[in-house]
Amino acid sequence: MILTSLLWLWLSFRPALPGYEYAFPRDHGTHDEYKTEWWYYTGQLSSDDGHRYGFELTFFRVGVEASGEQRAAGRWDLHNLSLAHFAITDVDGRAFRFYEKFNRSSPFTANAATGTLDVFNEGWRAMTLPDGSWRLVAASGRDAIDLVLTSRKPPAIHGENGISVKAQGAGYASHYYSLTRLEVRGTVNSKRCRGLAWMDHEFGSAQLRENQQGWDWFSIQLDNDAELMLYQIRRTDGTPDVTSSGSLITSDGDVIHLRRADMQITPASSWQSPRSGAKYPMGWRVAVPKFGIDLTLQPLLRDQELMTSGSTRVTYWEGAVDASGSFRNAGVRGHGYVEMTGYDRAFKAP
Known about the structure:
Elements: H1 2-11, E1 36-47, E2 52-63, E3 80-90, E4 95-104, E5 110-112, E6 118-121, E7 124-128, E8 134-140, E9 143-151, E10 156-157, E11 164-165, E12 173-188, E13 191-204, E14 212-222, E15 227-235, E16 245-249, E17 255-259, E18 264-272, E19 279-288, E20 293-299, E21 305-307, E22 315-327, E23 330-341
Antiparallel strand pairs: 1-2, 1-13, 2-3, 3-4, 5-6, 6-7, 7-8, 8-9, 9-12, 10-12, 11-12, 12-13, 14-15, 14-23, 15-16, 16-17, 18-19, 19-20, 20-22, 21-22, 22-23
């Protein structure tokens, strides 16, 4: 089983291996030689009249056929599937709504550019503007966003030696970076808004191992201009995998790698979805003792669950949270997002 998986990794799509050298803006674009890729935007915004929103806009690319000589066969051949999720957390309205798309990649339905950020799925889009900022556009049902994002820090590259390890074994990793402090202006549901967003871009060719159930992921933006990213891979017995890790991004933009032993994640309570039946942790204490970090995270709504039967077929919780606590003995506050997968069943990539 393990040998078969490794042969698939090496012979079909490129595995994420140590030594990868990032270059920007090149790496904002698509990497079709890898099996799976996503561009993930989350953020919290406030309108001019004080209304609070959280938003998620995500574009997924799943390779059907590895890039190479066969790519020249025709521009309409099926090489990639394109999927997308869009969600709004209406904090003051106490409502959460999400939407999804699923298309075969083509020049006119859904695609991603090489060498620059320009990815779209029908009318949803993330694109690079002439001044180097980015624009996000999405509209479905009752909800619409039109946002311009300006990065105040360089990309934060996670992991070590160019890879973010997800399991033990060659190739069980991804190339993963984030834009951790994106200043946002624009509109949500026609209301002028401002706030902060976070962007994750990840690409690789491995799935979770057979003894891994899912993950809990945290992005936290603090008011001292530092950010924290943590992910905890959960094994099928409920214990965190040793490969779980994270990054502390300093106010100057330096990235400090955190290992599993450096971080403590303790749930405060739980919430059971009335739709999926999945039982999720709800509220967390997040600590990194070696840097004097001790935070409490509270969800802005308990129900921020997506059931994506029309696209990725993954049920997951992706929600806006508030943070408060201490950082090197000084009080801090902040905002963030938490993602939890594998609580209804073991996670399987689309």
